[in-house]
Amino acid sequence: MSKIYFLFFTAFLVCSTSVSHAQDAPAGKNCSGLGTKQIVAGVEVVQLYEIAYHARVDTGANTSSLNAYDFYIEKEQSQPSANIGKWLHFTTENEDGESKQLVAKIVKTETVRNAQGAESRYVVLLPIRWQGQEKMIEVNLRNRERMQFALLLGRNWLKNDFVVDVDKER
Question: pLDDT digit string (tens) for 36-64?
Answer without folding.
Answer: 899 999 999 999 999 999 999 999 999 99
